[in-house]
Design brief:
- It is a single chain.
- This protein is α+β, with helices and mostly antiparallel strands.
- 21% of the residues lie in helices and 41% in strands.
- It has three helices and eleven strands, in the order ββββββββααββαβ.
- The protein has a four-stranded antiparallel sheet. A three-stranded antiparallel sheet has the order 1-2-11. A two-stranded antiparallel sheet has the order 4-5.
- Helix 1 packs antiparallel against helix 2.
- It is globular and about 40 Å long.
- The relative contact order is 0.22.
């Protein structure tokens, strides 16, 4: 069972079981590491030179190595919303996005990779 931490409260916000045991998982979020305060998280958009504020958390699942998934999650986290979705949809993976407005978005193929609990 995989539990995804709730970026806004204690506990988990989502739980799922991986369908294939040989699966990479990576989460990148803006809710644990800061520079001075919560407005300045460690995920910096290099074009705008500012902390990203769209995604609270991005979790990726795939047969790809976790190191690749970590790089993809970090890259997507600093992209504008629509660009991040296009980028992630083009890859061989499933995702769970938690937006800063507290909404959750699962990729359309999430059920191919995991079963929600």
């Amino acid at each position: 069972l995989v539990n995804i931490q709730d970026p806004f409260n204690e506990g988990s916000i989502s739980s799922f079981r991986i369908k294939n045991g040989d699966m990479g998982i990576s989460t990148s979020g803006n809710y644990r590491r800061y520079v001075k305060d919560k407005e300045h998280n460690h995920l910096i958009n290099p074009k705008l030179k500012s902390a990203q504020k769209t995604f609270a958390s991005i979790t990726l699942l795939s047969p790809l190595p976790s190191a690749y998934l970590d790089a993809y999650a970090t890259a997507a986290s600093v992209m504008p919303y629509k660009e991040a979705i296009r980028f992630l949809d083009a890859l061989d993976l499933a995702y769970l996005l938690i937006l800063n407005d507290k909404s959750l978005l699962y990729s359309s193929n999430f059920s191919d990779y995991a079963t929600l609990e």
